[in-house]
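This section describes the prediction task in plain terms. A model, or a person checking by hand, is given the sequence of a single protein chain and must write out its three-dimensional structure as a string of tokens. No templates, partner chains or ligands are provided. The sample shown here is typical of the held-out split.
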Amino acid sequence: MTKFTKGPPINERINAAKVQLIDEKGNNVGLIETFKALNMSRVKGLDLMQVSEREVPVCRIVDYSKYRYMKAKKNKGPKHVSTLKEIRFRPHTDDHDIEVKVGKAKKFLSMGDKVKVTIFFRGRENAFKTEGYKQMEKIKEILADVAKSESPPQLFGKRLIALFVKNK
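The expected answer:
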């Protein structure tokens, strides 16, 4: 290790005569001279890392490269953030078109996204809201093996909306 690396002091960079030592299994070894703790870590093929700065610093025997890898992995965050995708239908959408769009919905659900299915009515279609509810039931049946409805279909003005999430 170079003199100017970031992170906690390790091995020879620990400037204390005695340290409180914790071994690789998490057991408290006790108060021990730094050079003895350093020798114990070298015998095991690991590193001595300072965990906290106190009057008597607390040090731990760890694999420092593994520690840095796990810390970087933890800080990286999730690979995919769940978002809301919308798929829109009309009340008289053909069966094949429904299957194609529901296939896209299944793809979104498999990636961890939520899917909002909207059936929107225009003009004289407002008189046939039952057609929309029938179509929503058909979509719900197709998605049943992959997803569940978060809430029952709700009518908001000219739109019939249902939200689907992936089955656990």
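For orientation: The mean pLDDT is 87.
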